[in-house]
Specification:
about 350 residues; alpha/beta; six-stranded mixed β-sheet; four-stranded antiparallel β-sheet; 14 strands; about 40% helix; disordered C terminus
Length: about 350
């Protein structure tokens, strides 16, 4: 299958020697939903900026829709749709006016544009609100309009950067359904960045896990979880266990990959439920008191723990904004020059 997106050895460093990307490489087959999963600050948005010509890599290369992002930036922009983390909807315009303006920026007009706008309003459940000012839309409606804006020009590749951040759980699930339907019905290639484990598991046919600017694991969600033999045993301790925990579990057959973070003990066993009594007995022998214990099948959080040595939650809590996103597109070292960014804003609707 032809690759719709190819990244090869992307490196990006921001002022202060902040290494946002440290040799990122991956390939996205055409017509698939590909997920970049990682905590905030892992380098996901920097990767998207480079692939969408909003930023230049310090080293490495990238192709989107068969086009080199550095040599053919204009052609790349014409072939893609981009939905950024921040809402790009003009609240002072109606939903219909937002879509019409976006189409005109891409050179569309007349009956073809009006028909495309009507189709998108219907698809995203916005037809009844089409002629209302968008500043009166709910958060979920604005996000659906945002995605519709990225589709006006019928792109070959759609970039969705954290598309459901800030949405209520019910609205988030509805957005997942819309994204899945888009991929099935329009044959789109979609690159989705997310820090929601469940979202990556639900939507992505293939994904790459990003940590500290590097790809640490890649494959389908099922493949990645299948690499973890057995079940996860999670034990909440009454107090920090220290070395006595490791000493206790070293004597329990079949228990492996023991990790302790404060009062949370995590381990794996081929048959987790059967291993629990032995685990509890061993901890009791060492004088370690247990508050709660659970057993679970392999998850993407377990995959992340295996490859990084810490849970996804701990990574989220411990990372600052490593990738320079707080500075905004075009303000980090090595980003595209101002005139190039201006052209990009005109073509993509300021995304």
């Amino acid at each position: 299958m032809n690759a719709a997106i190819e990244a090869d050895g992307l490196i990006k460093t921001y002022p202060g020697d902040v290494r946002a990307l440290d040799g990122v490489s991956f390939s996205v087959p055409a017509g698939t939903i590909f997920g970049l999963l990682g905590p905030n600050g892992a380098g996901k948005s920097t990767t998207v900026k480079i692939l969408t010509t909003l930023s230049r890599a310090d080293a490495g290369s990238a192709r989107v829709a068969g086009l080199d992002v550095l040599r053919e930036p204009g052609a790349v922009r014409a072939a893609i749709g981009v939905v950024g983390q921040k809402n790009a909807v003009d609240g002072a315009a109606t939903g219909r006016e937002n879509l019409l303006l976006q189409g005109r920026l891409f050179g569309l007009s007349g009956r073809a544009l009006r028909s495309r706008v009507d189709d998108l309003l219907e698809r995203f459940g916005l037809a009844d609100a089409a002629d209302r000012f968008a500043n009166g839309y709910s958060g979920g409606m604005k996000r659906r309009l945002d995605v519709a804006l990225g589709l006006v020009a019928r792109p070959q590749v759609l970039f969705l950067d954290e598309p459901t951040t800030g949405l209520d759980p019910e609205v988030r699930v509805a957005m997942w359904d819309e994204i899945s339907q888009l991929a099935r019905e329009e044959g789109l290639t979609i690159l989705l960045t997310t820090h929601y484990l469940e979202e990556a598991d639900q939507l992505a046919s293939q994904l790459a896990i990003v940590d500290r600017g590097r790809i640490v694991a890649e494959g389908s969600p099922e493949q990645l979880k299948a690499e973890l033999r057995g079940d996860a045993i999670n034990v909440e301790l009454d107090a920090d266990g220290g070395q006595s925990v490791h000493a206790a579990l070293a004597r329990v057959d079949g228990v492996r990959e023991v990790q302790l973070e404060g009062r949370m003990l995590r381990a794996r066993a081929d048959q987790g439920a059967r291993a629990v009594p032995a685990v509890l007995a061993a901890l009791e022998t060492e004088g370690v008191s247990v508050a709660a214990v659970t057993v679970a099948r392999a998850s993407l959080d377990d995959v992340y723990l295996r490859h990084t040595g810490r849970t996804f939650e701990a990574a989220e809590a411990g990372h600052g904004d490593r990738n320079g996103d707080g500075r905004g597109a075009g303000n980090g070292a090595g980003d595209a020059p101002a005139e190039e960014l201006s052209k990009t804003a005109t073509t993509t609707g300021s995304r």
